[in-house]
Amino acid sequence: MQPPKASAIDLYIPWRWGFLALVGLAIAFAPLPGLNPASVDRTFHIEASQFSYAPAVLKANPGDRVTIELASTDVVHGLSIDGYAVEMTADPGQPQKATFVASKSGSYRFRCTTTCGNLHPFMVGKLEVGRNVLLWRVAGLAVLAAVAGMWSLRK
Fold this sequence. Notes:
Distance between the termini: 29 Å
Number of strands: 9
Structural class: alpha+beta
CATH superfamily of the domain at 41-133: Cupredoxins -  blue copper proteins
Shape: elongated
CATH topology of the domain at 41-133: Immunoglobulin-like
Strand order of the largest sheet: 3-9-8-5-6
Largest sheet: 5 strands, mixed
CATH architecture of the domain at 41-133: Sandwich
């Protein structure tokens, strides 16, 4: 007795899923070319009060010239950015400025450098340097999942 012969459609199905897997890996891990925006000057006005910064998250692109203006609303506050040589202190009513180039991609914490009360250790913020590639990767994988769903329903 001979084994049943595989039809052309039966041989096509494993290749289709393999192709989808390769496209998914490319979307997830391949570098995204040509999305580097031009460097610009960015100015952030940060109000420091016990025990928070407003805004607490700053976003810049690599190569941007960043100016931070720190204003204290109640007591003396400081600001230091991990990974960058930026440190300043502002008295109430006397804002301070610091300028630097956001040359390193990544997420960096900034912290208060002057003890301002019991919850001082929790006075932190974040500087995010880089483009949001995660958004584009997730969108691409969502489209790929929709295509895979439509292929699996089609018979």
